[in-house]
Structure formats: structure tokens, C-alpha cells
Amino acid sequence: MQAGKLPLEYLETILGGLTSNDPRVALGPAAGEDAALIDMGDKYLVAKTDPITFATDRIGWYAVQVNANDIAVMGAVPKWMMATILLPEGSSEKEIESVIAQLNGACNDIGVSLIGGHTEITYDLPRPIISGVMLGEVEKGKEVRSSGAREGDSIIMTKAIAIEGCSILASEAGSKLIEAGLSQEDVDAGKRLLDNPGISVVRDARISMTAGKITAMHDPTEGGIAGGLRELAMASGLGMQIDQNSIALTNTTRRYCDALSLNPLGLIASGSLLACVSPEDEEAVIGALWREGIAAWKIGEMLRKSFGIKISSSGRTQDLPRFARDEIARFFSS
Question: Strands 43-52 and 129-139, how do they pair?
């Protein structure tokens, strides 16, 4: 297989055969769901693991953000983190200490405790890799699942798409961007996206939950916004209609995708939150996000499954594009 996430339909097939012998597992492996739920009495323990395989710059910081995002979109509070850190032969003590400091600092920033993990120098590894495990908790009845979306729900998206994808390209492929005709200022602009608007959706999720009845949330990552929307549709067993003109793009994203012939709909999308909400609460949720400085728009609605997964632009409606792998994986493999 090619580099990147497993195809969604194949993942659903192999996960469908898994079972749990522990009745406390309220939500186990499922395509489109962001984390597991374990019954701990009056609360659920929420558990997630996610690796960092594309980025190397600020890799420890990245690991905290992407794992915390998946806890937050379950309606939970991120609390504890562990990390397995694999480093190439020849890594210096300074490099190792920098990764640990990034992990610890990023955890402290969001109130998470770094509670352990594993660190090693790994044979024949070309670049650092971190696999994080994040644990959180949520009161029973307040958990949110991707499968909770209902027909007629509005789909809200925060910030803009491909924030993470552009920041990775700027940090890992700046020379390629310049070769493609962009300037050093363009490269620097992509690096700044990592912090502004940023790839964390922890605040986005918390504000949305407070403002209205959220039926489902999802963190679109590898596979881009198109992949995230398909995962949401699969988990909920519904179809959807998306308005492409409502999907925000930064000018930096437009320039990067034009220069490198990438489709922004399929470019890794951490930084955007997808939230499903009843039409009655749509304005309240969007307004609350804007008041807290987080851009948000309605980009579509959940429909019956038989409708399919459609996207409209300039009066034309078609199936939402499918990507065999994330556009960034395609770029780095070319």
C-alpha cells in the first residue's frame, strides 16, 4: 500500500471483525470515531493514540496538539499523556532534550500531565517519529461521538482548511516551494499558520459544547477536509450536502496548492473542527465561536444516506472528491 492512512472502507472492514470482552468498553475501534470510551462509573475515560510521521520540526509540540484534539472532539477534557519517541541513530542529547521539552511545555500549556512513555534510538530510522497516547475524561451523558449526527443537522467548520498541511510543507519542503516560484515570505507565512490560527481545536470544541447542543464533532486530519467529512458521514450512517464556497481557505493555502498542484480538500487539515448541530442552535454556536476570535461557518447539512456525499460549487453539484491518500503524502512520495 501507499504511504498514508488506510482507505476508509478497508479500515471499516478490518475493524468490523474486532470484539471486546470487557463490558466497560462503551466505544471501541470504529471508523470515523476519534477516540475510545471506557466506563469508569460516573465518567468515561477517553483514550486516543496518534503518531506524528510527516513533521519533524516541533514534533513534540505537534504530538500533544493532535492527540488533545481527538479527546476534545469527544466532548472530553484532555488530562494525561504518554509518548513513545523513536529517534534516528546519531541524534544528539540536545535534540532529545528539545523533544522532551516540547512535549512537557505543550502539555503544561493545556493543563495535561505528561505521565510517562518510552524513548529510544531506533535502527535504520530516517527521521524522528512520536506516537502519543492521550487520556481524558467526560461525564456520562456529555460525551460526543461522530456517530451522533442526525439528519437535518447543520455542519459547522472552524478556521480554514489545510492549516497543518501548509505548515508542514513550509517547514519540511520550503526549498520546493521556492523552486515552484514562491517567496521566502510565503514560506514563513506557512510556518506561522502553526500558531495562528493554529492546529489546536480544544478551545473550538469547548466553546461549541457550551453554546449549543452538539450532536457530533470530528477532527479532520490526514485525508483533509474531504476525508474528515466522509468519516463523519460513515460514522453517522448519513449523507451530506456541502457548499464548497463556504469552506474557508487562507491565501497561503491557495498559493501553496496552486504552486505544487495540490487539492486543498485532500490536504491534512488539523486546525479545523467539524461540528454537527441542530439548525435551531446553529447561529448560537457560530456566534459564540466568533466572539472568542474563532472563525466559523456553516458549510453544509446532514441528509439521508441515500442522498450520498455531495459538494456544490458555482451551481454544480457532484460527489465529494475521494483521495486515495493525503495530498501531502502524494507530494512527499513523488
Answer: antiparallel
Tell whether 45 and 177 lie within a shared domain: no
Q: CA 272 to CA 157: how far, in whole Å?
A: 6
* Secondary structure letter of residue 212 according to DSSP: S
Residue numbers of the domain that contains 29: 23-139
The answer on 127 and 150 residing in a single domain is no
What is the sign, positive or negative, of the torsion defined by CA atoms of 323, 327, 332, 334? positive
Give 334's contacts (C-beta < 8 A, 6+ positions apart). Answer: none
222-255 pLDDT tens trace: 899 999 999 999 999 999 999 999 999 999 999 9
Contact in structure between 116 and 82 (CB atoms under 8 Å): yes
CATH number at residue 153: 3.90.650.10
For 302, the 3-state DSSP assignment is strand
- Asked, for residue 326, whether it belongs to a domain, the answer is yes
- Do residues 59 and 41 lie in contact, with contact meaning Cβ atoms separated by under 8 Å? no
Checking if the pLDDT of 20 tops 90, the result is: no
Q: Please tell me what DSSP assigns to residue 204.
A: H
pLDDT digits (tens, 9 = 90+) for 300-315: 999 999 999 999 998 8
The 8-class DSSP code of residue 3 comes to S
Report residue 118 as a C-alpha cell.
518510552
Pairing relationship of beta strands 274-277 and 214-218 according to DSSP bridges: antiparallel
User: DSSP string covering 245-290, please?
Assistant: GGS---HHHHHHHHHHT--GGGS--TTPPEEEE-HHHHHHHHHHHH
- Domains held by the chain: number: 2
